[in-house]
Amino acid sequence: MSETPDKPPEESTGRKRAKGATQEPPVAAAEKEPAVGESPPNLIEFASSRSGGRGKNKAADGTAKKATQADRGTAQAGAGATESRDEALQASSGSAHAWRVPDSVQERFIQIGNKFHFPDGTEAFTHHGNRLTTRSENAIVIQSMVAIAHEAGRGEITVGGTEFFRKEAWFSASLVGLTVRGYEPTEFERERLARALAARRGAPPSEARPEAPPTQAAREAAASRSPDSALIVGRLVDHGPAPYAHDPKQAMSYFVRIETERGDRELWGVDLERAFRQSLSTPGIGDEIGVRAVGKAAVTVLAAKRDAQGREIGREEIETHRNEWLVERTSFLDERRKLADVVRDPSINASDAIKRHPELEGSYLQLQMGHALAERQYASHEHREQFVEHLRAHLARRIEHGQPLEPVHLRAAEERTPTPRSPDRDYNPTR
Predict the structure, then answer these.
(1) How many beta carbons lie within 10 A of that of residue 237, not counting itself?
(2) Do residues 160 and 55 touch, judged by C-beta distance below 8 A?
(3) Long-range contacts formed by 271-276: CB under 8 A, 24+ apart
């Protein structure tokens, strides 16, 4: 959940806008055509309701009618009033299409004319009467645009733009009961929507998506899964490269969105792309996965340098760290947990463990080498045992966390004896 920004400042007239008041987007200039090579903006279009929107200001209607009557009277009085009549008619037209801006949108953004901005001045979206446009794919922006369309429309919207924007707009609009054109959801996305709607009604998840009862093995795996705050578990909803926080002004990063028991959660990190590419279980959309930060790497990155007013004045290098991630299916992690339990148990003979689980041969080889090192390094039996147990716990933890198993080295380096080379035979330059 994002924090609620400060409320917009008072308007230049000195009158503070009442919360929930109907806003009149001024007659906007025609939208600019996208520049050459620039993609068209993301958009939501809606048809106004017969009453001009649920939150239409009735007082504005009366003002509009009076203005129109006054214009006609002025027109009859003389041709010199033609210009003022046209201006009044234009104003009345704007009043007749007044929309109510929901309180949640007013609290998040600063409205200047028909544009809505984040508190830091970044443009979020633009209101063109029954058309809302944005360059952003930010979830809060999409939800706010849907909220405006929901207040003003007849129950149906059309979405356009990037696939990610259309998908997110479809989900947000469907949650509030709007019919959406312009995006065809997948079966998994429909199931996800059903689960979300059931959760809002307080219905059990089984009503949202009928599923076969879990197998005995699945129940045992879930029961044996120890609580781990570092492992984030949920259904994979989406992942891919994107500007950080879906803000086109931010640097490129990589996101993973998962559906958890507490709602959707979005994780960001450049290394997540590598984690998916090198995943041993190759998770796909709809799979239950576990995501874990397994380490940190020191990096130097270029960041925006800003002045006291928050304006970007250049770039500067900063020292920071980058999380290293692991992404695997939970079924894979459950199997790894069983292997880790085998390695942790000192009562299990190495040869028996390898016979049952050949993939552990490299790990037991590492443990054997640790035994030999401890014999040479420590005179005390107690210290040797402590060293070996620490090594055993380290190997088991790597296995449980889903990291690659130790490779098997067929021959130790010191056992390799290179064949002597005859200089006269091996080095015989030719002309």
Answers:
(1) 19
(2) no
(3) 271/297, 271/322, 271/323, 271/324, 271/325, 272/239, 272/325, 272/327, 273/241, 274/325, 275/324, 275/325, 275/326, 275/327, 276/239, 276/327
Query: CA neighbours within 13 Å on the CB side: how many for 15?
Result: 5
The single-letter code of the amino acid at 199 is: A
Show the tokens assigned to 196.
Answer: 């979300």
pTM of the predicted protein model: 0.60
Q: Give the pLDDT means over successive 10-residue stretches in the chain (431 positions).
A: 40 40 46 62 80 41 41 44 41 47 89 90 89 91 92 86 93 92 93 87 53 46 51 93 86 92 90 94 94 86 75 80 92 94 93 92 91 91 92 92 76 46 43 37
**Beta bridge mates, 248:** none
Kindly state the helix (H) or strand (E) to which residue 125 belongs, with its residue range.
Answer: strand 123-127
Amino acid at 123: E
Residue bearing tokens 């578990």: 233
